[in-house]
Write a structure and sequence with these properties.
The chain is mainly β. It is built from 4 helices and 11 strands; from the N terminus they run ααβββββββββββαα. The strands form 3 sheets. It has a 4-stranded antiparallel β-sheet with strand order 1-2-3-4, with helices on one face. The radius of gyration is 19 Å and the shape is globular.
Amino acid sequence: MLRELTVLGEFKPYGLIAEALDDKPEYNNVAADKYDYFLFDPEIVRDPCELNDSDISESPFGDQCDHELFIRGNTIIWSIGSRVFKRFTSPTPVKMACWCRLGDTSEALLCVLQIDSLTVCSISGELISIPLPCTITSMWPLPFDLLLQSVAEGGTSTQPTFLSTSPLSDTRDIFRSRKDISQSP
């Protein structure tokens, strides 16, 4: 069976449009073609414990629109459809960003990898910056954790070294509600 495809036009990340509308000089200092973006499903950021099927139509996350994370320089723009929902500006350039759930927290967290630190941002705006003991080249979300890849020591090994965020388990408590903390042993 053959299907006919129609090209609708060139895709332009909404983050580029948001930057142009901001008309801020700091965006002019960053190379025009040096940016990253990804679209994601709004289910990723929805708290599964708080919403049921009848609440979906009333969600503030605009489930019928594309959700986008746009990364350029030290700025991350989270847009929903054609509006900026949240904006994060880091003191240092952002290498990567991904959504993750850490431990038993139900809230999705935005993990932002920078040159010398990992910043964890909750949807409500809480930030935690964790200094990194070594150079991290990449990160991947796991079902209840985050996997970090460090640079091989001395450049002699061809196998990457992996660090888990499990030593950061105490930082998970910051994102837990007072009710959760008082009930845990």
